[in-house]
Specification:
It contains 8 helices and 44 strands. About 8% of the residues have low confidence. A hairpin with a 2-residue loop joins β12 and β13. It starts with a helix and ends with a strand. It folds into 5 domains: 189 residues, no CATH class; 57 residues, no CATH class; 124 residues, Jelly Rolls (Sandwich), CATH 2.60.120.380; 101 residues, Immunoglobulins (Immunoglobulin-like, Sandwich), CATH 2.60.40; 149 residues, Sandwich (Immunoglobulin-like), CATH 2.60.40. The longest helix has 17 residues. This is Serine-aspartate repeat-containing protein C. It is found in: Secreted. Keywords: Secreted, Signal.
Length: 701
């Protein structure tokens, strides 16, 4: 890979250009923003000043925790923060060639392309374990910056349709961030990154650039620069201060703060800002700008936002009289609060409230209230962004509130404006959930219904709650909802539901899932039995659901001229698979299901496809030059098996199915009927239907 990229960069290189003045760049029709190295800007002769070692940027520094040792490095290029979102931020670490864009015409006149080499920290383009781990850490940080928004930050290369906006009716678009190389490769101007303001959702895959060579690909530097450049594409401008285009922040320790659109490299807490700090030169409301005009919205609220709408505190397990708590949540707006309710017969409450492990933006306030709404305890350490509640509780019903807050004043701290992001609650609650005379009007049942993407029966970060699903207590056991005698509710935006005021007894809880949904683990059972003790809680009465893949094609009969070199057998096929985010390891098997002879040939035809230009290199299928699958078999009676890799999206799998072709080495029309069958087997073991195509062979004159 090293030799190939070196050659390509030489081919794409041009003679040194005269350095463009900043004024000249900013006056051009397309407004361009540079993110120059903050340290370089402080030196009068930046073009000759040696670059210092990025000590504060490296893993293991006080600001950057050591890289985890238990990462699955094979998943580095399969990361997705919100699969299924219609807006995408693609972190392109493995190299890309940019052509036919504004960058080419402005900075590379007369040249064909701009080659961004793969991300590296050791001058080799073969990814080492430390590079793969660092890429995962960078992804975690960028995903946290965009966690409040309904956008997928991913290392899985999307189809071009997911990056560009084709016109009215298209609701899928995004931004590629090219990560790697040096500003000397083509820009010829000292910069950490470059982007076109407002280009998110444009009609071409223009991309933004983050140059990592001069900072050795350091984790925090690279992640902050990525978020900064994507911010530009969403319409944001620099946050500066008197005498400086980029404000570098203030404070120290865990609550040291800087704006993401400034120079946030040397502060651990980097947030979206509206310029509240002293001397701010730009007071643009960044959150409003991000969620206005580019199709990016806030995430749906995951838990109740008041004491009266509190969600039941999920219980992860029970050991004797102690209940374990493990909850993940998100503060997506600075007006959001997450509320939870639980009951105890009394004992020690010990809960830790932690923000994201890397790149956290959320400063947590955790508060505990009694059944009357009186504050019992709260935690928000002045010099930290986590919180902890530990105290003895008498029997009763309690509520927990999680909020994102500021610290000190905006001149030496920050407000709650950008205190957003993911958190976890973990710990224990002593005492059972049965509290006689305390729970309002009887016992409770609570649970959730979610799209179990990986079919493992466990709620993962990629699994989405299913909103608006009918859940009812099936008193007569017939599986049908009878509104005259049966109590019902619907799931909220996070897929949660609850029943309260129940008398002690056994209840049959039924979820009204229908259509293509199937329960994880097989079968068609949408019922659960919950035995409610007097004034007690039955929690985690859950339903995990998925949609099996479905291949359809209106055309069932295919006409084949035996003289033809290829006939596509499923050119109109469509793949319906709304809850699968990664097709890595999935296989399509195509075989002659009737009339098979040694002269039959099944193969993937090269040419234009619905996902791009499809080419065949030996046993590898490529689309627009990127390897998406490999294949074996297809001759005679041998089954053609196509195995997809992490680059395969639903659109790519569909395009490959549409490119499956048949030919025969015989010049005779066979006396028996022939047919072809195909099915998709996902890596998690879920199999699609069988798509059957009848072949009508004939011979042209």
């Amino acid at each position: 890979m090293t030799r190939w990229w070196t050659t390509l960069r030489r081919l794409c290189a041009c003679r040194p250009e005269n350095r463009r003045s900043r004024r000249g760049v900013e006056s051009c029709a397309a407004r361009v923003q540079f993110l120059e190295d903050r340290l370089l800007q402080s030196r009068p002769k930046v073009e000759i000043t040696p670059l210092p070692e990025p000590a504060d940027f490296e893993s293991g520094s006080p600001m950057v925790p050591p890289l985890p040792t238990d990462l699955d490095l094979s998943k580095t290029f399969q990361l997705a923060s919100l699969p299924g979102a219609t807006k995408t931020i693609f972190l392109d670490f493995d190299g890309h060639v940019t052509s036919g864009t504004y960058w080419n015409s402005k900075y590379r006149p007369g040249k064909i392309s701009i080659a961004t080499p793969p991300y590296t920290i050791d001058d080799s383009y073969a990814f080492s374990d430390i590079e793969l781990a660092t890429i995962q850490a960078i992804w975690q940080r960028v995903a946290e910056d965009f966690a409040p928004f309904d956008v997928n930050v991913t290392t899985i290369e999307p189809s071009s349709a997911d990056l560009v906006r084709s016109g009215v009716g298209d609701d899928r678009w995004g931004m590629r961030v090219n990560i790697g190389g040096s500003y000397m490769d083509w820009l010829r101007q000292k910069a950490g990154g470059i982007a076109i303001v407002g280009s998110f959702g444009g009609s071409a895959d223009v991309g933004a650039f983050v140059f990592t060579e001069h900072r050795f690909g350091a984790e925090k530097y690279t992640a902050d620069c990525i978020s900064h450049e994507v911010g530009h594409t969403l319409g944001l401008s620099h946050k500066g201060a008197p005498g400086s285009v980029y404000y570098s922040g203030h404070g120290s320790g865990d609550t040291g703060w800087a704006p993401l659109m400034g120079a946030s490299y040397n502060q651990p807490l980097s947030q979206w800002s509206r310029g509240e700090y002293a001397g701010a030169t730009n007071r643009l409301d960044e959150l409003k700008t991000i969620t206005t005009g580019k199709g990016v919205n806030y995430r749906v609220d995951d838990y109740g936002s008041s004491r009266t709408s509190a969600s039941m505190l999920p219980i992860d397990g029970i050991e004797g009289d102690v209940r374990r708590v493990q909850v993940s949540g998100l503060i997506e707006k600075n007006t959001d609060q997450d509320w939870f309710v639980f009951a105890t017969t009394g004992g020690l409450l010990s809960l830790d409230f932690l923000p994201a492990a890397r790149g956290a933006n959320l400063d947590i306030l955790a508060s505990l209230y009694d059944a009357s709404g009186n504050l019992v305890a709260s935690s928000n350490p002045a010099d930290r962004i986590d919180a902890r509640l530990e105290l003895e509780l008498p029997a009763g019903v309690y509520s927990i509130m999680v909020d994102g807050v500021g610290a000190r004043s905006v001149s030496d701290g920050y407000s709650d404006y950008g205190s957003l992001g993911q958190y976890t609650i973990s710990g224990t609650i002593a005492g059972s959930g049965a509290v006689a005379g305390e729970l309002p009007a009887g016992g409770w049942i609570s649970g959730s219904i979610w799209n179990d993407v990986d079919r493992d029966g466990v709620t993962d970060s990629n699994d989405r709650g299913l909103e608006g699903i009918l859940v009812f207590l099936d008193l007569d056991g017939d599986g049908l909802f009878n509104p005259e005698i049966e109590t019902s509710t619907t799931t909220d935006a996070a897929g949660r539901y609850s029943f309260c005021g129940l008398a002690a007894g056994s209840y049959r809880v039924t979820a009204g899932l229908a259509g293509d949904w199937l329960p994880t683990g097989g079968g068609v059972d949408w019922n659960r039995t919950a035995v409610v003790p007097e004034f007690g809680l039955v929690e985690n009465v859950d339903f995990a659901a998925f949609v099996p893949p479905l291949m359809v094609d209106d055309v069932t009969d295919v006409s084949v001229d035996v003289r033809s070199k290829q006939t596509r057998v499923a050119g109109g096929a469509m793949l319906h698979d709304p809850d699968t985010s990664s097709f890595a390891g999935s296989r399509i098997s195509i075989q002659m299901s009737a009339g098979a002879t040694s002269s039959d040939r099944l193969f993937v035809a090269a040419g234009m496809s619905s996902a791009g230009t499809l080419t065949i290199v030996k046993s590898t299928i490529r689309i627009d030059g990127r390897a998406v699958a490999t294949f074996t078999g297809g001759s005679g009676t041998k089954t053609l098996v196509i195995t997809f890799n992490a680059a395969a999206t639903r659109e790519i799998v569909e395009a490959v199915v549409q490119s499956i072709a048949y030919r025969t080495t015989s010049s005779r029309v066979p006396p028996v009927a022939k047919s072809v069958s195909m099915s998709l087997l996902e890596s998690n073991g879920t199999r699609s239907n069988v798509l059957l195509k009848s072949l009508s062979l004939w011979k042209s004159v």
